[in-house]
Design a protein that fits this description.
Layout (H helix, E strand, L loop, with lengths): L24 E5 L6 E5 L5 E3 L3 H11 L7 H6 L1
Antiparallel strand pairs: 1-2, 2-3
The protein binds zinc ion.
Protein name: 3645_t:CDS:1
Organism: Cetraspora pellucida
InterPro entries: Znf_BED (IPR003656)
Length: about 80
């Protein structure tokens, strides 16, 4: 028998969007598989169908949670 080794690694039910800005947001799948809702890990604000640029703008200018790291802000 010749089983594929890939079967040892079950697919993740959720694919993460590729942009690194998503490191700072939780991505939640919506009904349509190509859309994600983004929830900020710091202030918990939620965005629907936002573009990565909007999320970066939030990190750069809008996020005001006290846990937010200014080093992150400098990157965006
Ligand atoms: Zn935030």
């Amino acid at each position: 028998m010749n089983y594929s080794e890939k079967e040892a690694y079950p697919k993740h039910p959720r694919r993460r969007p590729p942009d690194p800005v998503w490191d700072h947001f939780f991505a939640t799948s919506l009904k349509s598989p190509s859309y994600f809702a983004a929830k900020c890990k710091y202030c918990s604000i939620q965005f629907n169908h936002e573009h990565p640029n909007q999320l970066k703008k939030h990190l750069a200018k809008e996020c005001e949670d006290e846990n937010f790291d200014n080093d992150i802000r400098e990157k965006y």
